[in-house]
Design brief:
This protein is α/β, with parallel strands linked by helices and about 220 residues long. It is about 20% helix and about 20% strand. A seven-stranded mixed sheet has the order 3-2-1-6-9-11-12, with helices on one face. Strands 8-7-10 form a three-stranded mixed sheet. Strands 4-5 form a two-stranded antiparallel sheet. Strand 1, helix 3 and strand 2 form a beta-alpha-beta unit.
């Protein structure tokens, strides 16, 4: 979903207010670590994450709302290993992916049919060519897979600073599972947080699988 000059949330790193020094420093270190991961390690991580998510999705009714990972993001295609959204699609799940809105606000959504169905979106992102489903579509999700650079043991998520998911997650239905995909080593004891930051309940790690971190939201 992201271009390298943009964020996983679809915004520039400093959009939506200036994060504190702690957030900026932590983001830089985490991004550098992701960039330095060798291709074989990325492929193994995506394969493991896909197995864990398929198992999680099998227990959650309704569509899977999943970001489109690229580059060093967890779940991105690596070598012969397909990206997580394609694995979910091949497993028979109804996959819905985020679309960055023109004005700052909650994410819009569109049905994912595969990489050949994507077109250019805002801020260098990619999005499905099909019709938009509206911001309220996330309320139909059984599982929402959220991007982040790190999560801590209290469920606080360190994103890229755009705030799109902080505006979106309050719209998720109360019974839906909300999980962040991370690389091993990105589940931390604590991350800097601000009052508007929305917590999550689950993280998915290549090594440890699904980990409960808080009640979420």
């Amino acid at each position: 979903m992201t271009a390298r000059a943009e964020t996983t949330d679809g915004s520039s790193p400093d959009q939506g207010g200036r994060p504190g020094d702690g957030k900026r420093t932590l983001r830089r270190g985490l991004l550098a670590a992701r960039t330095g991961r060798p291709p074989g390690e990325r492929a193994a991580a995506t394969a493991a994450l896909s197995r864990h998510v398929i198992s999680l999705a099998s227990d959650t009714p309704g569509p899977v709302h999943c970001y489109l990972p690229i580059g060093g993001e967890p779940g991105a295609a690596a070598g012969a290993v397909p990206a997580l959204p394609d694995v979910l699609l091949d497993a028979g799940h109804d996959v819905v992916v985020p679309v960055v809105p023109v004005e700052p606000g909650p994410l819009d959504w569109a049905r994912y049919t595969g990489p050949d169905g994507l077109v250019d979106g805002l801020f260098g992102t990619r999005q499905p060519a099909g019709p938009l489903l509206g911001t309220a579509a996330v309320a139909t999700a059984g599982l929402v897979l959220v991007p982040a650079l790190a999560v801590d043991r209290s469920g606080r998520r360190l994103g890229r600073g755009g705030g799109y998911y902080d505006r979106t997650l309050p719209l998720v239905a109360a019974g839906a599972a909300v999980a962040v995909l991370l690389h091993d080593g990105e589940l931390l004891d604590a991350v800097p947080a601000e009052p508007h930051d929305v917590t999550v309940g689950l993280v998915v790690l290549p090594g440890d699988g699904v980990v409960h971190v808080s009640s979420g939201r």
